[in-house]
Amino acid sequence: MVTVALSCRRILCAVAVTCCLSLVCFSAFPVAKGLHISFIGNEAFAVTDGRTTLLTDFPYTSGAFGYMAYDFRKATANLSADTVCLITHGHADHFDANLFASTKFAIIAPPTVLAGLDTPRKVAFAPEMRYAWILVDALPTPHGTIEHYSYLVRWHGLRLYFSGDTDDVAELSRQHKLDVAFVAPWQLKAMIQGKKQIPARVVVIYHQTGDEEIPPYQNRRVLAQCESFDVPFAVHEK
Ligand SMILES: [Zn+2]
Ligand SMILES: [Zn+2]
């Protein structure tokens, strides 16, 4: 009996230790069950797993070139402490160095944009970069004469693609198994004209003007500013 009692106690201890360990392990993983994605304006989205926030083409100059205005204070009010900006290029409707200087955000951006910033929070630019749990592939794409990158973001098994301002849809066409593709209206139209499928479960339009008509194609979505949606991790784990 004593032996049995001791064994039981040992088993209970083992279970308790295992539970503690799994709690410790669990705490290393995101608390959220998916990515939460909110539209700020123009090509700016806040994407978060509850611990880290990725801000695409933000901060930009509100209303630059007649594109969407937004409230900088509101947009930055409830961000996670750990936030990184992902910048496709240096046009003012995508990036504002003065606004960025007023934040504590880290930044991934083309070398020409990084060169103008005096901060230790730059991620060294490379074809593949990492920030926290986020992997970023930088894909050079043409946009006039300015240095410009589209990005493939891999995060908790999800694949997000940000086209930026490029006129060329060749890189977008080369992608595969995207969970979300962020695509400008002119890129959507080029894909329609070329009868090409956008290789994504969800297509989100960005860089539209407020009243711009976006043709229907696949399951494309056009969000209002401040509107958000979730992409669950589980869907991709099948
Ligand atoms: Zn541009
Ligand atoms: Zn633009």
3D structure, described in words:
- With 238 residues, the protein is α/β, with parallel strands linked by helices.
- The chain folds into 2 domains: 1-30; 32-237, Metallo-beta-lactamase, Chain A (4-Layer Sandwich), CATH 3.60.15.
- 23% of the residues lie in helices and 28% in strands.
- It has 6 helices and 12 strands.
- Strands 5-4-3-2-1-12 form a 6-stranded mixed beta sheet, with no helix packed on it.
- Strand 1 (34-41) and strand 2 (44-48) form a beta hairpin.
- The termini are far apart.
- Mean pLDDT is 89; it is low at 1-9 and 11-30.
- Bound molecules: zinc ion (2 copies).
- Residues 91, 93-94, 165, 207 line the site of one zinc ion (ZN).
Annotate the secondary structure layout.
Blueprint: H1 2-27, E1 34-41, E2 44-48, E3 52-56, H2 72-75, E4 82-86, H3 97-101, E5 106-108, H4 111-115, E6 128-131, E7 134-140, E8 149-155, E9 158-162, H5 170-174, E10 178-183, H6 185-193, E11 200-205, E12 228-232
Parallel strand pairs: 3-4, 4-5, 9-10, 10-11
Antiparallel strand pairs: 1-2, 1-12, 2-3, 6-7, 7-8, 8-9
